[in-house]
Structures are given as structure tokens and as C-alpha cells.
Amino acid sequence: LAQDKEQDRVENAGKVMQEILNIPDGIPKSVLDKANCVVILPSVLKFSFGFGSSFGRGVMTCRGGEMFRGPWSAPTMMALEGASAGLQIGGNATDFVLLLMNPRSASSILTSKVKIGGDATAAAGPVGRAASAETDVTMRAEILSYSRARGLFAGISLSASTLRADNGANKNLYGKEVSAKAIVFNRAVPAPPCAKDLLTSLEKASPVNENKN
């Protein structure tokens, strides 16, 4: 069933997020606390370059409401397309986590597709407990990206990839037409049970938005 497939994807995203939040030298709390939205793309398999479209699917949750100040929202399904050549990872499945640091880029992704590094400035995210969110790169970047492959966790550039809401998958998950924007800004649907681990881990790790933008 299409709905089961999307529910599995949300559950996998929750597992990935929990594991990444538990990595000692993972995403610095000071960085996560400034993120308006988090995109998790679990188990993206080998990208191919120059031939057709590379593809990853996952979920995004944002701090709810127009100003991204509320609790983490029900998930909206997302798709990542056309990844950059920096991502030649072989046949290993790779998990990606993207942090949307700027309200403008977060809003753009909810309504249209966004080219990472083009429409929205992007950088490899800083890692480690001591890493500061105040560096020039992180202060300026609208999207910070991370990857995990073969147990290794690192900031990685996803420039030239395109990120968009997958509204077909949202329809499969929620059983009706519902836009990414309505899910995040209007709380048009309650969070499904499959999102419990994802939302619980984010609420625990970063309950308040410290972003002053």
C-alpha cells in the first residue's frame, strides 16, 4: 500500500534522527536550536551523475506557525533530486539531514522547489559539541547539510541538488490532498502515529527556536 510505504519512510526518518542526535560529535545543539526546519532523507542509495535524475525521498518537519516559533509540525514528505558530483558514495545507503536556518528558504521549500546552493545558500554543517553556530559559514548559510554513511557522520555539501515538497506522497500518507504549506503553517493535519519517534526526539533535543532571524 502506498500509505504503508510513506509511513515506513516517516518511521525510518525518526530512527535516523534519533541515532544522529545521539552521536557524541554530531549536530551541535547551538546549531539545531537555530534551525526552523529539519529534512531527513534516510537511506538514499547511490546517486548516478550525468545520466537521468538522482533521487532521494524523506520527510521535513518545521517548527509550526508562520514565524516558525511553535512545536515541531506533522511531517511533510520531501524529494531531493539531481545531487551534485561531490556525492559519489558507491553502493552504500547514505542518510542525509538538512537544517533550514532561514525563514525565507524554509517558506520557499514549502511552496516551490529550491535549488540548494542556487536559490538558497548552502554549506556543510559544523559537527561536534564544541562547534559554534557563530562561524561565518553557518551565519550566512540558509541550509546546512549533513550525511551519514558507513557509520561516518559529517557535514557535506549538497549544492546543485533540488529539494521540493512531495505532495503526491503527502496525499498517500494523509489520505487526502494536503499541501506542505498547510501541514506546517496551518496544522491542517495531526501528526500521524508513525511520526512519534521523530517529533519526540526533536522536541526533547530542541524545544525552542533560538533563531533571531
Question: What is this structure, in a nutshell?
Answer:
The protein is α+β, with helices and mostly antiparallel strands. It has seven helices and nine strands, in the order ααββββαββαβββααα.
Topology of this structure?
Blueprint: H1 2-21, H2 29-32, E1 37-44, E2 55-62, E3 76-81, E4 94-100, H3 103-111, E5 114-115, E6 122-124, H4 136-140, E7 143-149, E8 152-155, E9 162-165, H5 167-174, H6 180-185, H7 196-205
Parallel strand pairs: 6-7
Antiparallel strand pairs: 1-2, 1-4, 2-3, 3-9, 4-7, 5-9, 7-8
Helix pairs in contact: 1-5, 1-7
**Main sheet record:** 9 strands, mixed
Helix content: 25-40%
Number of E-state strands: 9
Low-confidence stretches: 47-53, 84-89
Shape descriptor: globular
Order of helices and strands: HHEEEEHEEHEEEHHH
Arithmetic mean pLDDT: 85
Residues in β-strands, percent: 15-25%
Terminal residue distance: 41 Å
Radius of gyration: 16 Å
Count of alpha and pi helical runs: 7
Structural class: alpha+beta
Task: Describe, in plain words, how this protein is organized in 3D.
The chain has 213 residues and is an alpha+beta fold. It has 7 helices and 9 strands; from the N terminus they run H-H-E-E-E-E-H-E-E-H-E-E-E-H-H-H. Strands 1, 2, 3, 4, 5, 6, 7, 8 and 9 form a 9-stranded mixed β-sheet that branches. Strand 6 (122-124), helix 4 and strand 7 form a beta-alpha-beta unit. Mean pLDDT is 85; it is low at 47-53 and 84-89.
